[in-house]
Amino acid sequence: MENKNTSNQRAPNGADNGDLSAALATSARHLQQAEDTIRYQQQQLHRLEVRSDELFNSLDEAFCIIEVLFDAGRQPIDYRFLKINSVFEQQTGIVDALGRTMREIAPAHEAHWFEIYGAIALSGIPRRFEHRAEALDRFFDVYAFRVGEPKDAQVGILFKNIAERKQREELQAYLLQLSDTLRTVADPLEIQRAVSQLAQHHLGADRAYYCEIDGDTIHIQHDEFRQGLSSVAGSYSVGGFPLLQAIINDGKAFVVADVQASANIDAEFKTLCLHHQVFSFIGVPITKKDQPSALFFVACRTPRQWKGHEIELVRETAQLTWAAVEEAKATEALRNSEENYRAIVNQSIAGILKMDLQGHVIFSNDQFCRMLGYECEELLQLDTDDLVYAEDRERHHAEFVRMVTTGNPYEIEKRMVRKDGAIVWVNNHVSPIYDKNGVLEAAAVVSIDVSRQKELERLKDEFIGIASHELKTPITGIKAYGEIIAGLMDESVTPTVKQLVGKMNLQVGRLVKLIYSLLNTSQLGGGQLALHLEVVDLNALLEEHVLQGQLTTARHRIIFNAQQLPHVFGDVERLGQVVDNLLSNAIKYDPMGGDIIVTAQERGGFVRVSVQDFGMGIPKGAEEKIFERFYRVKDASASSASGIGLGLYICRAIIEKHQGRIGVDSQVDEGSTFYFELPIHIDKGSNDDHILR
Amino acid sequence: MTTIFFVEDDQSLQEIAMLIFPEPDFKLIVFNRAEELLSETSYPHVYVLDKQLPGMDGLDLCRMLKSNPSTQEIPVVILSAAPNITELAANSGADAVLEKPFSVDELQTLITAISA
């Protein structure tokens, strides 16, 4: 406020009385003016204070003004709260702080707080920092600055509690460290060790371990513990500890701050804890598929008030550890499985290879390489075509294409060529390999070297061939003698002798047939079965052989109803041999007699000939085997039927050589229907005979 | 009378041949080996040769007979215990093949027909 009448103004004419009165009046006026000024300034100051308080209280951060207290040596030892705002209490948790000192409120408050504020009060240099106040269980972000004169030692503090943020950051940092640890460790036990160590260290605990639960047994493989404690590694039954069992089954974190004082722990478990110096702990069980599978345990040998973020940390640790251990175990199991698989594959006496759908070798085990005399690296550069013997290549292709088309595995016996040019006979079992989407991507081949077996078979066939051959000359003699005797017999010979000679000639006939069967077998084994191919009218062929067959039996009626049939291309003699064999089997295996029905009909590009009997039938499981060499059904009722198990083997070879197929449908005691199918002949304008080898 | 030169090392078959080709309709001369026949100076109406003989085999003997102008027109029948030799026998010049074990009738019929 401006005062226009200054105190040294005098009256203009110098009259004393008048001057005095005037002066007094002037003074009184000046005094009044000064009082007004002071009142006004006080009002302004009060308004300022109110505004200041409003401003402090409107802050969302806590604010206070403290007076730093020094000892005689000018060392800061405490501070007093002179002013606080409304947020202060909520941010600090301190009630009625005003006028009290920090030491009164929290005697354990860290000394560094006093040092920092003392330095600011003395230097006037403001400072921003973040510090933990353990006694308040808080973490503060602080901006502190001097207020007023240095002698006042007052500091204004603007701050907020960032404990939650800090805990989040700490948890994140811990989890990051945990992840880094887990990433670098692959062994399940090593994971348990590393995680226990990390958790123990981070929480400042005295013991930490991860254990696996199997039924009512817990297995502690490794535990981290401080000096003075001993390991608890081992397997324990939790059957005797109902509470522990309940904790595990509950699947929730179980926290105990003071084992001795806790009312939640039963006597048995308390004894166990104290025996191992466990005075406080956090246990987090892991439950998978409603079954307890693991437990993470952190303990201290003193009572401890576990904080929420610490419990959360142990929970996270338990989950991550479980996931890492299980993954490591799965990886280990997979690695073991792969190692086992590799060992089996490489030590297998079978050659094993994988080939893509173009026939390139993409994997080969050692045995397959040995079989063919190649280095494995060399094989991987090759196509399977390069390995298959030229004559068997077409068959190999056809079967492979069929597998690719139908997805059906197949077995093939073929010749392969070694690197040195030698031939190896192999029996290959080829199966499809599908990718994860079920798309055929490759083929697995299991290859057995059957060269030795083949050689033995060859020797056997050769032996049978030679033996049969050598038998033929004497049998020709016996047969001829028999015929000569039969021719010489006149009426003087008794009927008995005639009958015996007749029987002898019949047996010679059987012997001749047997020799032919053995020879045929020998030829089949050596791949020498020759077919003289021509256009064949199956109706005529069947009629002829049905008639012949009927002549051999009086107990059976062979029924053949000729139908209009397309021609086939085949060897009349060999096909007749097949029909004879099927008819003689039908007669032989239906000894009581009855009907035998011969049918021939066209079926999708083939002619199917079937011979049905109503005899004893073939047991389940033997249907395929009866076409094998020397196989005979083991059945007491059939034991009277003669034969050496070659007839159907020869039939199958003959039919397959005609690009046909042979099979049987049978029911025990109801009879069998043997059938063969031959491709229909498509006339290309040539009826010349062919010889196939 | 039909003269048959029968080359067969098996004595039973020799004996049977004697029985089924009796005189006076037949004159059967038996040889145990091919080499014996080669030293023979007379000629038959038909040669019957076993394929498998000690020493030179029947097919080689046939080939020699068929390459000799004095004997090449004389029919040759090969008796064989081995199957499927029709082509081989034809290549050696044989006129017929009979696979063992044959029947007496088959042999008689064949010889009669071929020597006619």
Q: Roughly how many Å apart are the termini of chain B?
A: 11 Å
Q: Round the mean pLDDT of chain A to the nearest integer and report it.
A: 86
What's the story with the biggest beta sheet of chain A? 6 strands, antiparallel
Distance separating the two termini of chain A: 137 Å
Q: How many β strands of chain B by DSSP?
A: 5
Task: Work out the oligomeric state of the chains in this entry.
Answer: heterodimer
Q: Main β-sheet of chain B: number of strands, strand sense, barrel status?
A: 5 strands, parallel
Helix tally of chain A? 18
Order of neighbouring strands in the sheet with most strands of chain B? 2-1-3-4-5
Describe this structure in words.
The complex is a heterodimer of chains A (693) and B (116). Chain A is α+β, with helices and mostly antiparallel strands. Chain A is built from 18 helices and 24 strands. Chain A has a 6-stranded antiparallel sheet with strand order 8-7-6-11-10-9, with helices on both faces. In chain A, a hairpin with a 3-residue loop joins β22 (661-667) and β23. Chain A is rod-shaped and about 205 Å long. Residues 1-12, 636-640 and 685-693 of chain A have low confidence and may be disordered. Chain B has 5 helices and 5 strands; from the N terminus they run βαβαβαβαβα. The longest helix of chain B has 12 residues, at 104-115. Classes of the chains: A alpha+beta (693), B alpha/beta (116). The interface between A and B is medium-sized, with 20 and 16 residues.
